[in-house]
Design goal:
Layout: H1 9-12, E1 13-15, E2 20-22, H2 32-46, H3 70-84, H4 87-93, H5 99-109, H6 116-121, H7 143-149, H8 151-164, H9 174-182, H10 187-214, H11 220-237, H12 246-251, H13 254-257
Antiparallel strand pairs: 1-2
Helix pairs in contact: 5-10, 7-8, 8-11, 10-11
Bound molecules: zinc ion.
Length: 258
């Protein structure tokens, strides 16, 4: 992520009159998930003080005696999971999509969707069966590849981003995707936007199953259109569309958000 892999502290540190500044020169724009991590890093760095009289050495900050121990590492992991756990109900279960789609989203985060890679690692898929993605036949079918990064899926995402008229950098993991999606749109649009993400990963999954179990290759533009219409139907059932027609939503999603 950094502009140069090997940077000297002297090149990224600026010592002002009163405080230190860190110029990390990132090569890529930050996703929302990474942006919050970068803010945490900045807070951490702002507490750092350079002392001329002390030489550099590695230190394990979790321990009072500066040396690594498994017990301290476990303590850190337990504390961090306590901090992040309360956010999950909001990101996954706070959505207004049907419950089966929330459950699917949750299982994807827990690496429990039965894609070929998961089945092979659990010794369920026979070793002579290919683990390659059914669409590109190049990459291993992992959850992230199938739902987010495969060329086939990427075209669907690209269509949806054009529809919302936004530029989006697809995060690496499904966890980052979930956070970025949840916090990735303004308040007015957020209810509808939040439904689109989980609805799309579900649509990609069912299209993949259609190929494998029914031999039916879905047309990408149909997948996109059906996803838009399904979300409109869910919003309509929740009385969120205020008399607007589906074609208005298809033309410009923001018109529904006014
Ligand atoms: Zn693929």
């Amino acid at each position: 992520m950094a502009w140069k892999r090997k940077n000297w502290i002297a090149t990224i540190l600026s010592i002002g009159a009163r405080q230190l500044g860190w110029y990390l020169h990132l090569a890529l724009p930050l996703s929302n998930f990474n942006f919050s991590k970068m803010q945490e890093l900045n807070v951490l760095l702002s507490k750092f003080r350079l002392v001329d009289s002390v030489g550099d050495h590695l230190t394990w900050a979790a321990s009072p005696i500066d040396s690594y121990s498994i017990a301290d590492a476990v303590k850190i992991l337990v504390q961090s999971s306590k901090i992040e756990a309360p956010m999950w109900p909001k990101v996954i279960w706070g959505n207004i999509v049907p419950s089966k789609i929330m459950v699917f989203h949750w299982l994807a985060i827990k690496n429990s969707i039965p894609v070929k890679d998961v089945l092979a690692k659990r010794k369920i898929l026979p070793s002579n069966v290919s683990t390659l993605c059914v669409w590109c036949m190049v990459e291993v079918e992992t959850i992230e590849h199938l739902l987010l990064h495969c060329k086939w899926s990427s075209c669907i995402w690209a269509d949806l981003f054009r529809w919302w008229n936004i530029r989006w950098i697809m995060p690496r993991s499904i966890i980052e995707f979930s956070f970025d999606w949840y916090y990735g749109m303004g308040i007015k649009a957020s209810k509808f936007w939040k439904m689109i993400g989980p609805a799309t990963i579900w649509a990609i999954w069912t299209a993949r199953n259609d190929v494998i179990f029914n031999g039916k290759l879905a047309c990408r533009s149909n997948v996109v259109r059906n996803t838009k219409l399904k979300v409109f139907l869910w919003a309509s059932n929740l009385k969120l569309v205020h008399g607007l027609q589906a074609y208005v939503w298809e033309q410009n999603p923001f018109l529904l958000c006014i």
